[in-house]
Structures are given as structure tokens and as C-alpha cells.
Design goal:
Layout lengths: L19 E2 L14 E4 L11 E9 L9 E9 L8 E6 L7 H8 L10 E6 L15 H7 L9 H22 L8 H15 L4 E6 L1 H12 L4 E7 L8 H22 L4 H17 L2 E2 L6 E2 L1 H9 L8 H12 L4 H10 L11 H12 L6 H14 L4 H10 L23 E8 L6 H10 L4 E9 L9 H13 L7 E3 L1
Parallel strand pairs: 5-6, 5-7, 7-8, 8-11, 11-12, 12-13
Antiparallel strand pairs: 1-2, 2-3, 3-4, 4-6, 9-10
Helix pairs in contact: 4-5, 6-7, 6-13, 7-8, 8-10, 12-13
């Protein structure tokens, strides 16, 4: 089962550089951590010698600060210039995205920021180098691809919920008691400890996608410690489980409409054509070039989702849809495999494992199958292509989960915090624009500062807008807060 997407930042979707802590330590460090060369892992080579890695021990349970600890994997590259502001800490989304893996590949996008900041990221608890959770083996993941995540019959519905329950049990077996201590609030407290050991008086932060929810949570818990904070591709803090799914159905349908218009098609007719294709695939999965694998409806939807994250990928979607119409599912399968972090050898990444463990600990709501069936017409009206899948996801994602959730919606109000720059993209498919306005409002008057980009794709910074990039850079590098409501077109 795949969540489409509670905002995985695909800033480095094809660049899975993995890094761990290697030998050797820094001799000019203020943090007290044992920084050393980052080492290669099975997923990729080590980054260059510019990068250092370390492990920070924090309490497993923040209510018991002297109790058992958990290790957090950190990565950094020191500032190049002499007029250093401090550390700029990044979170790339998910939840479940590895900052240790993504930071080196994202660094060229933020190269100008490195003049005055150490670039820092980390794997949040339950992710990657921070005692990452793995709920299934590669064979089990591939076997689960045959499960229909938009069930049409009682048998398919039974299989869907059995699979969901089995996933949760696998997570519990692997994570143990850690499973109750990987919430967004736990990670926000980790962030403040990271700030302390880095020697920064204020938390300077760049959060992308889910990283915006984490940033808002941090601002609520530690408003006086907020420095220069930018939130890009913003998760709506006022949306509950069903609201998030509706937002994404709306956002991905908007992106699909934009894609269809770019190819000269009427969005309504083009959507109907794709929905018809998916129904045919549901009845008869397509052949692919991969031995023993066919393109199911679920994999087809996943393959359509991925190129909608970036306008540059739209031609890839055209080719894949044309091939599927001719009975060849190979290209959509390749796209789905990229989204699911599947390598040609059949190994899968675990981002969605961590994503599910974290989000199901955060989210208290557990919609039932009956409730979902009531909602399906509404979802299908929002998006004939994505609505059914996202509707069923509300019931299946945390079905029979081993630990209870913590809240309906996160608290992000931050009275007394320094201005937080909130960047919304009107064409964002995964975190629709309305969420940015809500975040700015809920942070509070004088705190949330809204910057709008009229563009396409997931996120705004580094996406081709000189206006966005220069505004964000001026804020982070010089502390220049733009006028609330500034629009970049």
C-alpha cells in the first residue's frame, strides 16, 4: 500500500546518496559531537570530503530525559564564507525522507546559502541512520503489490485490510517500543537538541513538504528559539485525515489538468480517458518488460503520480500513457518503481515504512471502511483518477494500528516567534496552495509571512523562479522579511 503522498519531498528522488558516520573526527568543532567522514552504504557511495557525519544521542522518551536513548544520524557541510550566520537545518519531507541521504544531492540547489550557513540535516527518529524502521522484506513488499488498494469486491476489501493489519504488525515487530516515540513532536524536540549541540542560539530552518509541519510544530513548542525559518510546499495544519486526502485529490487533479492542457487536451476529456485506462488495467493488468511482473491498477496510478511532481517530467508521462494505451505497461512500471524506491535488483527503500509509522502515531483518526464508502462519491467527484485511491487510503493507512494516534491536527500557533516565511505554490500537487495560507494564519499575526508563487510542481524554491529564490535568499542570508502577501508569477 502506498500513500499518495502526505508530502514526500522528491528533491532527490533519483539520487539516493546514503551516508553514515565513518572514521576520523573534526579538530575545529564547537558541537561536542564526534564528526567524521561519511561512509558509503549498500545504497550508494559516500559523499565528498566536504561532508561530515555524526551520531547524536537523545532520549527515546522525552518525558524521561535520563532514560533510554536513541541515536540520530546527522550530516553537515561547513559554511564557505567568513560571515557565518550559523547552521541551517533542513528536513526534506515524508515523513520518512532521509536528510543524511538527500542533503548532499540538494546542496547545489542551496549553494548560495552555504556562503553564510553550515548546511545540516538529519534522519528523524525511525528513519534511515536513526534506527530506521523496516516493516517488510523486499519479497513481502513485491507480493503486496498485487493487493488492490481501491477494492471493488468483498474479497478485495478483505485482502486490503488484512494487508494493512499485517503491515502494522511488521512495524511493531521491528520497531518495538520505539514505535510509540517517533512522532512529529518527538522530532521537534530532537531539533531543539540539535540546535543546542550545534551551538546556535536560534534555530535557522528550511522545511520542505512534511518538513513544514515539523517546522510549525517546532515553532509552537519553542517559539522563542525560532530564528530564520522557511516553510516550502506547505502541509495544511488544519486538515485532518480525510481533509489531507481530499486536499491531495484536489491537488493532483489540478496538476493533471495542467498537464493535459499543456498537451492540447481538454482536462475533462483527458481525465475521462485516463480513468477508463485505469479501469481496463484493473480488469486486466498490462504486460511489462519485467519478468514475472505486470502493471496493476495500483502501480499504474503510482506511475502517473510521480511525473506530476515536476513540470519537467510531463513529457515522460505522455510517453508512458501512450505506451499503456497500446498495452505496454513497462514505462508506467518504471515510474512506479522509482516512486516506490525499487532498484532493478528488486530491493526497496523504506521511506514509506517510516512515513506510515510516524504519521499513524501522529494521527488519531481511524476512519472505518463504512465511513470511507460514504466518502467515496465525494472523492471521485474531486478526482475521477485519484479520488478512489485516496479515499480508501483514509481507512487502510492506519487500520488496526498497534499504537494510538496523538491528535486530529497538529498545533502550530507560535505567538512571540520571529517571522516565519511560508512559501506556497499555486500548482503544487501534493501540498495544495491553500495549506500555505492556513499555515501562515495559524502561526499567528506577525509570525506567518506569506509568499506565493504561481507555478507548477511540488515546492517553489529552486524550481525556476528568480523571484522566489531571491526573496528566500534575502530572508535567510540577510534577515530581510518580505511584505506579507508578496506574489511571484
Amino acid at each position: 500500500m502506498t500513500r499518495f503522498v502526505r508530502g514526500t519531498a522528491l528533491v532527490a528522488a533519483s539520487a539516493l546518496l546514503a551516508a553514515g558516520c565513518g572514521g576520523g573526527s573534526s579538530d575545529d568543532d564547537r558541537s561536542g559531537l564526534s564528526w567524521g567522514r561519511c561512509k558509503a552504504t549498500a545504497d550508494g557511495p559516500a559523499p565528498s570530503s566536504d561532508w561530515q557525519c555524526a551520531t547524536l544521542k537523545v532520549p527515546l522518551d522525552w518525558s524521561k530525559p535520563d532514560g533510554e536513548t536513541i541515536g540520530l544520524g546527522l550530516i553537515r557541510a561547513k559554511a564557505r564564507g567568513g560571515d557565518r550566520v550559523g547552521s541551517l537545518v533542513f528536513n526534506f519531507g515524508g515523513p520518512g525522507a532521509s536528510g543524511v541521504s538527500m542533503m548532499p544531492s540538494y546542496a547545489p540547489t542551496v549553494s548560495s546559502l552555504r556562503e553564510r550557513y553550515d548546511l545540516v540535516s538529519w534522519d528523524p527518529r525511525g528513519v534511515g541512520a536513526s534506527e530506521g524502521v523496516r516493516c517488510r522484506s523486499d519479497k513481502e513488499i513485491q507480493a503486496a503489490e498485487s493487493v488492490d488498494v481501491s477494492p471493488d469486491t468483498p474479497a478485495e476489501e478483505k485482502a486490503y485490510f488484512e494487508d494493512a493489519a499485517a503491515f502494522g504488525k511488521g512495524c511493531r515487530k521491528d520497531a518495538g517500543k520505539q514505535m510509540a516515540h517517533v512522532s512529529t513532536a518527538d522530532s521537534a524536540r530532537d531539533m531543539d537538541r540539535i540546535r543546542e549541540v550545534l551551538g546556535d542560539e536560534k534555530m535557522h530552518y528550511f522545511g520542505i513538504s512534511y518538513g513544514t509541519e515539523l517546522g510549525g510544530t517546532y515553532a509552537h513548542l519553542f517559539p522563542k528559539n525560532v530564528g530564520r525559518m522557511t516553510l516550502d510546499a506547505v502541509v495544511d495544519p488544519g486538515a485532518d485525515t480525510v481533509g489531507h486526502a481530499e486536499n491531495q485529490a484536489r491537488g493532483f487533479q489540478r496538476a493533471l489538468n495542467g498537464y493535459l492542457e499543456s498537451t492540447g487536451q481538454d482536462p475533462r476529456d483527458g481525465t475521462r480517458k485516463i480513468a477508463d485506462l485505469l479501469r481496463r488495467i484493473d480488469a486486466r493488468p498490462l504486460a511489462t518488460g519485467a519478468p514475472g511482473r505486470k502493471l496493476t491498477q495500483t502501480l499504474a496510478v503510482t506511475g502517473i503520480i510521480l511525473p506530476l511532481y515536476s513540470k519537467d517530467s510531463w513529457p515522460t508521462l505522455t510517453s508512458a500513457l501512450d505506451a499503456a494505451e497500446q498495452g505496454d505497461g513497462s514505462e508506467l512500471l518504471v515510474l512506479a518503481d522509482r516512486y516506490n524506491e525499487r532498484t532493478p535488483s528488486g530491493r526497496y527503500g523504506t521511506t514509506t515504512h517510516s512515513q506510515r509509522v510516524i504519521s499513524c502515531l501522529d494521527d488519531r483518526q481511524r476512519p472505518t471502511a463504512a465511513r470511507t464508502k460514504q466518502l467515496l462519491p465525494r472523492f471521485e467527484k474531486i478526482s475521477p483518477v485519484f479520488g478512489t485511491f485516496l479515499g480508501w487510503d483514509t481507512a487502510g493507512w492506519c487500520h488496526d494500528w498497534p499504537v494510538p494516534g496523538q491528535h486530529d491536527t497538529p498545533e502550530v500557533s507560535a505567538p512571540g516567534a520571529a517571522p516565519v516565511l511560508v512559501v506556497g505554490n499555486t500548482g503544487d500537487p501534493a501540498t495544495p496552495y491553500e495549506g500555505a495560507r492556513r499555515m501562515a494564519d495559524e502561526l499567528g499575526k506577525g509570525v506567518g509571512v506569506m509568499l506565493t508563487w504561481r507555478g507548477e510542481g511540488h515546492g517553489a524554491y529552486g524550481s525556476g523562479s528568480d523571484c522566489v529564490d531571491s526573496t528566500v535568499n534575502a530572508y535567510l542570508l540577510d534577515g530581510s522579511v518580505p511584505k506579507d502577501g508578496k506574489v511571484c508569477s
